[in-house]
Amino acid sequence: MRIEIVQGDITARPVDAIVNAANSSLLGGGGVDGAIHQAAGPELLEACRELRATKLPDGLAPGAAVATPGFRLPAKWVIHTVGPNRHAGQTNPALLGSCFSESLRVAEGLGVRSLAFPAVGAGVYGWEARTVAQVGFEAVHAYMGRPVEAGVQRVELVEFVLFSEEVAEIFRTVLEETGGGVPA
Predict the structure, then answer these.
(1) From CA 101, how far away is CA 99, in angstroms rounded?
(2) Residue 164 burial (CB < 10 Å; 0-12/13-18/19+)?
(3) Distance CA 116, CA 73 (A)
(4) CA distance readout (Å), 57 to 2, 25, 47, 52
(5) How many other C-beta atoms lie within 10 A of the C-beta of residue 165?
(6) Does some domain include residue 38?
(7) Which of 33, 45, 56, 171 could form a disulfide with 133 if both were Cys (CB 3.0 to 4.6 A apart)?
(8) Packing angle of the helix pair 42-53, 31-40 (nearest 10 deg)
(9) SS3 for 78?
(10) Rounded distance, CA 39 to CA 70, Å?
(11) How far apart, in whole angstroms, are the C-alpha atoms of residue 156 and residue 159?
(12) Each residue's pLDDT tens digit, 8-66
């Protein structure tokens, strides 16, 4: 598996799936969530409404993940995850790590080979970019350390797509400190 850091727009990435830093309602919002909903088109909102009406009447819990089609995005899938909100007292890094590990689990179930993450939990949810990078890389390394089940396609490329160069540089530094990407 390769881990790459990309500064840019996650909605334009040519990967099998992108991860949406969603809110628990799944009905759109600001930041990455709003950008993904806008780029995917109104069909994404309808798919999320259907999830709320059927499988997730109370919304998506922090640390959980669920997939919808990507609709008008280059990515075939959007994997929605809700980061813990530090401002609301959700300060457990394991809950943040679950966003990454659950997204990887959902991606594996879909047969995704390439996946792009934003800085889940950073920004309005109050997590420092450095902490998000450390927790995210730890979750990816743990995912790669699990035994592979027969016939299961593993994710081969994980991109961390960061909107600002400043955050991308923080992720690059942490990746270097943690030994870089995992060999394939």
Answers:
(1) 6
(2) exposed
(3) 13
(4) 36, 9, 13, 5
(5) 11
(6) yes
(7) 171
(8) 110
(9) strand
(10) 9
(11) 10
(12) 999 999 999 999 999 999 999 999 999 999 999 999 999 999 999 999 999 999 999 99
Give φ, ψ of 93 to 5 degrees. -60, -25
Looking up residue 66, the CATH number of its domain turns out to be 3.40.220.10
Known catalytic residues?
A: 33
* Cβ proximity of 126 and 85 under 8 Å: yes
Q: State pTM to two decimals.
A: 0.95
What whole-number distance in Å separates Cα of residue 56 and Cα of residue 71? Answer: 20
Distance CA 48, CA 25 (A): 9
Asked if residue 20 is part of any domain, the answer here is yes
Task: For residue 145, count other CB atoms closer than 10 A to its CB.
Answer: 8
Look up residue 90 and give its amino acid: Q
pLDDT tens, position by position, 141-155 = 999 888 878 888 899
- The answer to whether position 183 is within a domain reads no
CA–CA gap between residue 59 and residue 85 (Å, rounded): 15
Q: What are phi and psi of 125, to 5 degrees?
A: -85, -5
Which structural domain range is residue 72 located in?
2-177
Q: Which is nearest to 96 in space by CA: 86, 105, 88?
A: 86
Number of domains making up the chain? 1
> How many residues are present in the chain?
184
The token duo for 36 is 């993904």
